[in-house]
Amino acid sequence: MPILGKTRKDVIKEFRTAELLEAARRLFAEKGFHSTTVEDIAAAAGVAKGTVYLYYRSKQEVYWAALERGITELENQIQTRLEAEQTPEAKVRAFIAIKIRYFETNRDFFRIYFSELGSGLSHPAQMPAQIEQMYLQQARILEAVLQQGIQGKTIREIRADTAAVAISDLIRGIIVQRLLGWSTKDVESDISFVFDLVWRGVAA
Amino acid sequence: MPILGKTRKDVIKEFRTAELLEAARRLFAEKGFHSTTVEDIAAAAGVAKGTVYLYYRSKQEVYWAALERGITELENQIQTRLEAEQTPEAKVRAFIAIKIRYFETNRDFFRIYFSELGSGLSHPAQMPAQIEQMYLQQARILEAVLQQGIQGKTIREIRADTAAVAISDLIRGIIVQRLLGWSTKDVESDISFVFDLVWRGVAA
DNA sequence: CGGTAAAATGACCGATGGGTCATTTTACTA
DNA sequence: TAGTAAAATGACCCATCGGTCATTTTACCG
């Protein structure tokens, strides 16, 4: 008998799901997909292995759910923050800043995010369309901003879709450098560097 | 008794090594590291599983050898081609063109190249220093070119190391787009796009 | 040829770990 | 508190696969 739209089952499910995905995210990031066992995840979440299978049909499903969770959170941050900015220039800068900062404080998540893109490359058919769409979604948000700038003449005539992906690549590159310890600069400095490079490349 | 500097053993080793690594590259690219079995590689190379272990101590070693082989080939192409160009501008363009073209014709190899970088991220300690160095080496070549341009005043004062990595990231991004079928443009068009963006970003 | 050493083979071993399900525990209800 | 259904458990099953090594095949030489 549902109360407030949530049955008892829903509440339990929500709780377990959160526990499991948090543990899964950390472990997958730390040891990679194959080296992480379902037993590991269960233990870290404080449940037995069988319980995992009450909520997810397979290890792979747990992985995708953990990935999806993080992407959604990031996307929400991007959406919210961009709405607060007025000019395309400010929006582009905000986009860069949010992504770099998000992964700076969620380093473990980036490891999943990044390597899934890698394995998606190797096995396109296996990556759920939903996940692929979520990767693309971020670039689309940026693309819309660029398009806006082009119409407003602050950005030169450029292929907005390709440019959006290119900017995303630059951002990803900086994050990788930071994770590998190849970047010694502080976050703000790296954000400025990327923005500077990008803006020179696209400004009218 | 060595003749011409190569013993019988060397010749056999060279032949088997080439066969194995070629098969390994294709399989690892197609199915990923974990889904590829040593049995698979052996079969594809036309030998029995045990034979693989006469030349490599483990599956992981085969993988690294296959990766190293491709990187070396690519690096040689870069070195050779850049020497033929005079100006930093031409060198930067050549660098971009070679990498995109190399991976365009060695799509399978890129899948290994890319995902190893991904797993290296997750498990820094596991990636042999030698492989890490080879990744960095390419950026260093480009960095030297940028440095040269800065001295010659054709490139503005910029952090050459960071810019070099950024350019590499842009290139990688374009290749990923092509592999995923998200880029509909022809190769030359993509090369020009990247170069254009880069040059606007770094030119004096 | 016949002998021998290098090369190759593939059956086999042992460990691992995803997934299952009979049993137990918990939570709720009357 | 007794009864029951949902939730959780973890011992177990079994397919997979990396790596080994006793045996066989090949290549070379006197």
User: What's the story with the biggest beta sheet of chain A?
Assistant: none
Provide the helix percentage of chain A. over 70%
The end-to-end span of chain A amounts to 60 Å
Taking Cα atoms only, what radius of gyration of chain A do you get, to the nearest Å?
A: 19 Å
- Amount of beta strand of chain A: under 5%
The residue-averaged pLDDT of chain A reads: 90
Q: How does the overall form of chain A come out from the CA principal axes?
A: elongated
> What structural category arises from helix and sheet content of chain A?
mainly alpha
Task: State the total count of DSSP E strands of chain A.
Answer: 0
Q: What's the oligomerization state?
A: homodimer
Provide a quick synopsis of the model:
Two copies of one chain form a homodimer. Chain A has 204 residues and is mainly α. The first copy, chain A, contains nine helices and no strands.
